[in-house]
């Protein structure tokens, strides 16, 4: 019985993240449009886009290889597996012991590796520009993320995300300096990893301003739909991560009753809404940086993470 | 001892170190002045919180002085001054941002090691605040060393002062009269430096230190 | 028994070298030598594997070779068995690969005699039990690999590489001789048992320095790494795989044997020093790799990076041991050994792939390749597996060992010394930076060489390589996958070694449900490579099935979109230099003093614009160039001694005699 319930919770989590990801993207776009005094597309437009793209024929370049065709499925699978392991409405997921926070971030790194390879596959300069800039951004964002993970692990005593979430829920952590530094660094890294303004513009098709869009320029049809869905899932994953670590109230602990799970679900929807609106406001109020200012942006996140980890090493009360 | 009071004091002191690091990498003067204003506001918040948990009402006065002078009066005056000097559009870096930030982190580590080792028997709240204060001090010195513009060096000096005030309030109280005299001496020093800057600017049309070295014959 | 068997196999390898000289002109020489090496190394591998798995007791023997009153001591214990497995796995793979690759060798008589001697030397180093046989085998290893580096001696770069290599190798051996001299002490008993019994700890830091110079230069630690990117690419590809994948691990063995086993318990600052050198080496290695265009040179610099990661683990183990934390030391040491094993697997695989590309196209320069995925399918899949593994991506083996290293770093706040408290998180950040840059480096290597469009006609006409090479690559790729999905087995196999060296071992992993690994406690961290692999595979398959069923599965081929302006010339795609340009701009100004210059001709001038990038190797300029300059200057000055008159020579002898007598008179 317990096993069936745990399996059901994990299954609900997996489908929930998949269903909510386009909605989150739609909310962000709608709020951005409203802030710019436009009416904007309806909130469910991303679902319509995905269905439309899925039905279309995929157009491949004549020299695209089998890797190009396989990458969308790999990227989507890696991102979905990672997103299914981040607590959204409940901690203590059935398979949370199979991959800790380091493994979840490394799964996203795998997805990025294959996407960058796909960008180089057709042999155009756009793909190369996207892949090389993505590699530069990743070379700074990943160490920053690892340092943030160190800070969280040193505070909570574990790298398992469920255990970290439960620790933060129990308020045993308090308001620590290193947690504050980790929060700021995590927000900076999340913006960079999800290709949001000020690092990259998700709505542009100008070669000088794009990173993620340049890598997927040659994709169409169902392949493009899977990659877009994976990008939305990644945004959802980072928001769920920030929510479950820094705003954990509402998370249902392990072996709760159905009411606790329902309450957790409602709290989660509320957190997503707030996060989406906050992201839209942030993106509208700031301009995109030049590509070679991004290392300074991410270097700041790395320094913050390093400072937080240093403080934790130096004394247990920081 | 441990608890919310402890944590908030640490958060504010840590925020001050963070803003000092932010001041290191600013390369435009108006932004630098804004960040310095934020530095002073955070200092005022930290001193207010210390006044609250140490139950020393005269620290509130210190906080108001810090907020008023360094948070509003001095930044506004400096902004006007740089517009009149015409240097508000300059971009400056002496050493690149990367090495400067690495040096900043190394200095914070050094300050932590020294302070926490030397004060092993003291009250934990006080010694960790002192460690943060020493970091702010060293970062202010680093800022003075890596800036080319005299206004930037003055701001570095003033952030160093902020570190000293943080140390003094963290160590459970400092007499008010000393605090007022320090504040006034800073104000007077600022006025004097301002007058000098005007004089230098009038004579040489620049306040760039490297240009001054050229005029003094120290640089070809 | 096991020791005797492995010594006989090593002797047979030495004899095989002699046989190769005799068979030099024979048509089947290549096949005979490589098959015989394969069989012997497989026998050695099986022997060592049995010894390690059954946790057998250490065996020693004394052979009546060498100096008559000393003999040659040999020993087979858990540490030796683990490294024997590593050495012979790499050697068996290289021999198997050589069966196919060796046929393309233009001067086999320069390669075949030295190859088995190289293998024998490495096997004997790992089993040596006294300083004399250790150093003799070490020299066998160095000299035979030097001969292999000089196999294509008509190419000037290879001659330069060989020169630098023999210089650094001799210098390293000198350092090791001095280290053994210090360890043996005034009695001069060089047997390892006697040295272990002496076990001095105070004043032993010169031994640390000498071993870091001697073993560190062979492993490739910065700043003693300069020979590695010159020598490893110069040798034939299977020998490069051996040098990068196996010989560097023999150097790690020397380091572990001397500093963990023979010289008593380390000081905490030894750990700090080794850790910091490891972190710096990792970042420097991968940054250099990102700037190179030669396939093999990229792989050689990447070896330097991975050795840095291994030494970070070893430094942590030293620090933990010095502070009497044996469980944490066991975790760090296991992580280091696991990473060394993984590196042998994926580096050999990548060098085999580079060799395949070289024999298919004749090109080593990435800027001349491209589009090989269409022409060489098996090689592509194998090299892709190697690239994913070396970039530390789940679910392959590189991630499992990096994960263990990070878990060891997370245990470090228990260390009380301040230096460690500051340097461990700093080196953790360096390690994370090196891992991210390694992923960028291998995206670049795979993307430029195998994907895209062919940049030169040789790449267009490439063909797949022979069955032996393909099988060797496939076996190593499968091993990478297995080690990544089932890391618990490797960790448990290493447990006897870790127990012998650090006094504790990680909890048993194979008994945990579902093949997870739990390094410390389940509440702290756990990882299951097999489940991650299955999840990804199932999700991808399910998605593909559902999409093809319900949505669409039609495909149409068309010219590339390229934003509406496709250019058919392959030169418009990204090259290796352009891919690394953002990273070069970010990290290059500090590390390489990078300068970019653009020469634009004025309008109307028909000359092409020129883009000039200047990178300087600061280690060479500030360490090696001054030393070699000083040596030249001194040699020139001392040259005058060649041309003295007879009277002057006699007065030199007279002066020497008088000064020695003076010393005897004054010194009591």
For the structure shown, list the relevant keywords.
heterotrimer; B: 220 residues; 8 helices; 80% helix; C: 668 residues; mainly alpha; two-stranded antiparallel sheet
SSE layout and pairing:
The complex is a heterotrimer of chains A (318), B (220) and C (668).
Chain A: H1 2-35, H2 45-55, E1 58-61, H3 66-84, H4 101-121, H5 125-156, H6 161-169, H7 177-193, H8 212-215, H9 221-246, H10 258-285, H11 294-314
Helix pairs in contact in A: 1-3, 1-9, 1-10, 2-9, 3-4, 3-9, 4-5, 5-7, 5-11, 7-9, 7-11, 9-10
Chain B: H1 4-25, H2 29-54, H3 58-85, H4 97-118, H5 124-145, H6 150-170, H7 176-204, H8 209-215
Chain C: H1 2-22, H2 29-53, E1 59-63, E2 72-76, H3 78-101, H4 108-111, H5 114-127, H6 131-149, H7 156-184, H8 192-198, H9 205-219, H10 228-234, H11 237-262, H12 268-291, H13 295-322, H14 326-361, H15 372-375, H16 377-390, H17 397-410, H18 418-450, H19 457-460, H20 467-485, H21 487-502, H22 529-550, E3 555-558, H23 576-579, H24 581-591, E4 595-599, E5 610-614, H25 618-638, H26 646-666
Describe the structure concisely for a colleague.
The complex is a heterotrimer of chains A (318), B (220) and C (668). Chain B has 220 residues and is mainly alpha-helical.
Estimated radius of gyration of chain A: 19 Å
Instruction: Provide mean pLDDT of chain A, rounded.
Output: 90
Number of domains of chain A: 1
Shape annotation of chain A = globular
Shape, per Cα inertia axes of chain B: globular
Average pLDDT for all residues of chain B: 80
Report the helical percentage of chain B. Answer: over 70%
């Amino acid at each position: 019985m317990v096993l069936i319930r745990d399996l059901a919770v994990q299954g609900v989590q997996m489908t929930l993240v998949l269903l909510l990801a386009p909605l989150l993207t739609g909310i962000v776009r709608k709020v951005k449009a409203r802030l710019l005094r436009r009416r904007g597309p309806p909130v469910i437009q991303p679902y319509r886009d995905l269905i439309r793209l899925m039905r279309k024929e995929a157009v491949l370049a004549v020299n695209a290889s089998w890797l190009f065709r396989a990458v969308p499925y790999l990227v989507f699978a890696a991102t979905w597996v990672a997103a299914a392991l981040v607590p959204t409405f409940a901690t203590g997921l059935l398979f949370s012991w199979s991959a800790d926070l380091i493994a979840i971030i490394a799964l996203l790194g795998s997805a990025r590796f294959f996407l960058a390879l796909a960008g180089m596959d057709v042999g155009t300069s756009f793909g190369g520009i996207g892949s090389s800039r993505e590699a530069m951004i990743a070379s700074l964002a990943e160490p920053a993320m690892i340092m943030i993970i160190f800070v969280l692990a040193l505070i909570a005593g574990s790298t398992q995300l469920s255990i970290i979430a439960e620790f933060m829920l129990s308020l045993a952590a308090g308001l620590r300096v290193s947690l504050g530094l980790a929060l700021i660094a995590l927000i900076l890294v999340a913006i960079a990893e999800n290709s949001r303004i000020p690092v990259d513009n998700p709505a542009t098709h100008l070669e000088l301003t794009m990173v993620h869009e340049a890598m997927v320029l040659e994709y169409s049809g169902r392949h493009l739909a899977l990659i877009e869905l994976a990008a939305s899932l990644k945004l959802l994953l980072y928001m769920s991560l920030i929510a479950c670590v820094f705003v954990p109230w509402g998370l249902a602990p392990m072996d709760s009753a159905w009411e606790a799970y329902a309450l957790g679900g409602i709290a989660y929807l509320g957190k997503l809404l707030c996060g989406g609106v906050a992201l839209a406001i942030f993106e509208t109020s700031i301009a995109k940086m030049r590509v070679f200012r991004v290392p300074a942006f991410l270097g700041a996140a790395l320094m913050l993470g390093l400072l937080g980890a240093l403080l934790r090493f130096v004394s247990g009360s920081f | 001892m441990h608890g919310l009071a402890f944590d908030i004091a640490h958060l504010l002191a840590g925020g001050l170190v963070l803003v000092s690091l932010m001041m290191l990498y600013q390369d435009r003067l108006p932004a630098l002045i804004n960040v310095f204003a934020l530095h002073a506001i955070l200092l005022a918040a930290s001193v207010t919180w210390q006044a609250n948990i140490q139950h020393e009402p005269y620290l509130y006065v210190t906080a108001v002085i810090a907020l008023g002078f360094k948070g509003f009066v001095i930044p506004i005056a400096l902004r006007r001054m740089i517009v009149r000097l015409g240097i508000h559009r300059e971009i400056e870096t002496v050493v690149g941002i990367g090495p400067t930030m690495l040096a900043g982190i190394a200095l914070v580590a050094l300050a932590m090691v020294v302070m926490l080792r030397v004060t092993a028997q003291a009250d934990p709240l006080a010694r960790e605040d002192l460690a943060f204060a020493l970091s702010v001090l060293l970062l202010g010195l680093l800022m003075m060393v890596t800036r080319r513009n005299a206004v930037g060096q003055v701001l570095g000096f003033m952030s160093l002062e902020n570190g000293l005030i943080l140390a003094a309030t963290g160590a459970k109280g400092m007499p008010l009269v000393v605090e007022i005299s320090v504040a006034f001496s800073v104000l007077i020093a600022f006025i004097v430096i301002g007058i000098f800057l005007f004089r230098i600017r009038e004579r040489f049309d620049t306040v760039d230190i490297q240009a001054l070295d050229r005029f003094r014959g120290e640089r070809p | 028994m096991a020791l005797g068997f492995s010594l006989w196999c090593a002797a047979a390898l030495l004899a095989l070298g002699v046989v190769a000289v005799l068979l030099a002109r024979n048509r089947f020489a290549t096949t005979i030598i490589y098959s015989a090496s394969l069989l012997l190394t497989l026998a050695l591998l099986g022997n060592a594997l049995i010894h390690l798995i059954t946790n057998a007791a250490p065996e020693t023997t004394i052979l009546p070779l060498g100096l008559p009153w000393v003999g040659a001591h040999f020993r087979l214990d858990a540490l030796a068995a683990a490294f024997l497995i590593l050495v012979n796995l790499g050697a068996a793979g290289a021999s198997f690969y050589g069966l196919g690759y060796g046929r393309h060798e233009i001067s086999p008589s320069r390669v075949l005699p030295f190859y088995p001697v190289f293998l024998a030397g490495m096997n004997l180093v790992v089993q040596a039990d006294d300083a004399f046989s250790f150093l003799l085998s070490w020299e066998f290893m160095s000299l035979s690999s030097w001969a292999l580096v000089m196999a294509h001696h008509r190419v000037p770069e290879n001659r330069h590489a060989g020169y630098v290599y023999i210089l650094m190798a001799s210098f390293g051996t000198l350092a090791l001789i001095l280290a053994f001299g210090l360890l043996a002490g005034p009695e001069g008993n060089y047997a390892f048992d006697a040295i272990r019994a002496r076990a001095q700890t105070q004043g032993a830091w010169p031994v640390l320095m000498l071993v870091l110079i001697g073993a560190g230069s062979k492993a490739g630690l910065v700043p003693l790494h300069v020979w590695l990117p010159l020598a490893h690419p110069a040798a034939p590809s299977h020998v490069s795989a051996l040098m990068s994948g196996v010989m560097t691990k023999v150097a790690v063995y020397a380091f572990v044997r001397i500093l963990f086993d023979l010289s008593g318990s380390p000081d905490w600052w030894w750990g700090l020093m080794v850790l910091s050198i490891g972190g710096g080496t990792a970042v420097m290695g991968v940054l250099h790799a990102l700037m190179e265009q030669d396939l093999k040179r990229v792989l050689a610099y990447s070896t330097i990076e991975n050795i840095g990661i291994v030494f970070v683990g070893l430094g942590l183990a030293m620090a933990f041991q010095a502070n009497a934390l044996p469980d944490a030391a066991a975790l760090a040491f296991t992580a280091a050994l696991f990473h060394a094993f993984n590196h042998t697997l994926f580096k050999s695989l990548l060098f085999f792939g580079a060799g395949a590309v070289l024999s298919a196209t004749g090109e080593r320069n990435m800027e001349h390749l491209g589009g090989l995925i269409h022409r060489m399918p098996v090689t592509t899949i194998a090299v892709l597996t190697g690239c994913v593994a070396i970039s530390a991506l789940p679910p392959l083996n590189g991630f499992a060992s990096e994960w263990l290293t990070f878990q060891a770093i997370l245990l470090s706040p228990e260390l009380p010394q301040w230096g460690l408290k500051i340097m461990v998180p700093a080196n953790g950040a360096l390690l994370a930076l090196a891992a991210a840059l390694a992923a960028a480096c291998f995206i670049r290597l795979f993307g430029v060489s195998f994907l895209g469009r062919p940049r030169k006609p040789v790449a267009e006409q490439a063909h797949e390589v022979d069955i032996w090479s393909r099988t060797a690559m496939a076996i190593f790729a499968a091993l990478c996958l297995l080690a990544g999905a089932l890391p618990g087995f490797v960790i448990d196999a290493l447990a006897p070694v870790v127990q012998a060296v650090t006094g504790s071992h990680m909890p048993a992993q194979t008994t945990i449900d579902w093949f997870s690994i739990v390094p410390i406690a389940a509440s702290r961290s756990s990882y299951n490579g097999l489940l991650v692999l299955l999840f990804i595979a199932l999700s991808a398959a399910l998605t593909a099935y559902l999409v093809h069923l319900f949505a669409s599965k039609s495909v149409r081929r068309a010219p590339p979109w390229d934003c509406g302006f496709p250019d058919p010339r392959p030169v418009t795609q990204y090259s290796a230099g352009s891919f690394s340009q953002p990273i070069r701009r970010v990290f290059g100004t500090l590390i390489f003093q990078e300068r970019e210059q653009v020469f634009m001709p004025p309008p109307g001038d028909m000359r092409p614009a020129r883009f000039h990038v200047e990178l300087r190797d600061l280690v060479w300029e500030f360490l090696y160039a001054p030393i070699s300059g000083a040596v030249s200057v001194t040699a020139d000055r001392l040259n005058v001694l060649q041309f003295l008159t007879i009277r002057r020579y006699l007065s030199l002898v007279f002066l020497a005699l008088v000064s020695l007598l003076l010393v005897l008179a004054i010194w009591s």
